[in-house]
Specification:
The chain is mainly alpha-helical. The chain has helices at about 1-5, 10-50, 65-70, 75-85, 100-115, 120-140, 145-165, 170-190.
Length: about 210
């Protein structure tokens, strides 16, 4: 084979390099298709089974080149953060099942990272809104740190609105938090210590779809 290649003036090393490049390009293209398929299918699975390991595409080319090429790293991070919020059950204030607590802590870390580093103001706004939801849920269940948690929730909802003035969920959640804070203070003044804020929680807890927020 080498003699034949030399006869036509084609270096064997050059042919090998072309073959390697072609294989790498094929594998990368396959990985990109796999990532797109995984996101689409797992978005559907999330609605029925959020406890499954979702949005973790298997890539043949190391280094996550396919997700980087598609620019979906931030999308993946946000989906996983929303999943952790849902599994923490913020609609159940005071719910302290160990897995829920772990998910609450994981969600807080991931959402904070999104707010600080994501290039999309819309995603930053959605993440800030979810952080507010978590603080509001904790405030309902926790008497000792309630004032601090309500202040944190209010700050996060305002941050979400500042990042995306069209974030209707954050606007509604801010309104509920401000009215709920007054209800809690009135209830505490009357002798209660752990009431629900007007019987309402922050909007959408546990009901959102991945990629859309609460």
């Amino acid at each position: 084979m080498r003699a034949g290649l030399r006869r036509y003036g084609v270096p064997a090393v050059g042919v090998a390099a072309c073959l390697v490049g072609a294989v790498a390009a094929f594998l990368l293209a396959f990985d990109m298709w796999s990532v797109k398929t995984t996101l689409r299918n797992d978005d559907i699975r999330y609605r029925a089974a959020p406890t499954d390991e979702l949005w973790r595409p298997r890539e043949l080319v190391p280094g996550g080149l396919a997700t980087a090429a598609l620019g979906v790293d931030d999308d993946l991070a946000y989906r996983r953060a929303v999943r952790a919020v849902r599994l923490s059950h913020p609609e159940l204030p005071g719910y302290s099942e160990p897995n829920a607590v772990d998910n609450r802590n994981e969600a807080t870390v991931m959402l904070t990272r999104i707010v600080e580093h994501d290039p999309s103001d819309a995603r930053k706004s959605a993440a800030a809104n979810l952080l507010g939801v978590l603080s509001f849920s904790d405030a309902i269940a926790e008497y000792t740190n309630r004032e601090r948690l309500l202040t944190s929730a209010t700050s996060r909802f305002r941050q979400a609105i500042a990042l995306d003035p069209g974030n209707g969920d954050a606007k509604l959640n801010l309104e509920l938090t401000l009215s709920g804070s007054k209800a809690l203070k009135l209830s505490e003044a009357g002798g209660g210590t752990n009431p629900a804020a007007g019987g309402k929680g922050a909007k959408g807890a546990g009901a959102g779809e991945a990629g859309s927020g609460y």
